[in-house]
Design goal:
With 126 residues, this protein is mostly helical. It folds into two domains: 2-56, no CATH class; 60-122, no CATH class. It contains nine helices and no strands. It has helices at 2-8, 16-23, 27-38, 42-48, 51-57, 63-75, 88-100, 105-109, 118-122. The two termini are 26 Å apart.
């Protein structure tokens, strides 16, 4: 998916995702991914996406890995976190990590309603 965004969105000279990758210090690889993708070599473009870039962009992996990296994400200034999964167990694992975080707990005590179940997380009023 990342290779599609870096290599195939926008035009060769105007691509928000590629420009973002360049600003984050991955200029050469961004150009390489785009060249591969535009040449129809999508699988090679996907393999060219560095693990380091994915780690800077996503909380990905087993629950323990996500839990160990969650604090850094929380502390970086983000105010929201998008979760992309169709797996209820994964969604529950991420919610468990977030709700167990000591800095998120004060929101619970002030009456802020946080979603606690999958149907709550899927409601449109959150």
């Amino acid at each position: 998916m990342i290779a599609l965004y870096i290599g195939g969105m926008g035009t060769r000279n105007r691509n928000f995702h590629k420009d973002s990758m360049i600003r984050r210090g991955f200029a050469e690889v961004a150009e390489h991914i785009q060249e591969l993708f535009l040449a129809g070599r999508e699988a090679e473009a996907a393999e060219a996406v560095p693990d380091e870039y994915v780690d800077e962009s996503c909380l990905i992996g087993p629950r323990d890995r996500i839990a160990s990296r969650f604090a850094a994400w929380r502390d970086c200034g983000l105010t929201s976190l998008a979760v992309r999964t169709t797996d209820p167990a994964t969604l529950n694992a991420i919610a468990t990590v977030a709700l167990a975080d000591a800095r998120i707990q004060p929101a619970l005590s002030t009456g802020t309603r946080l979603p606690t179940t999958i149907p709550d997380l899927c409601r449109s009023d959150h």
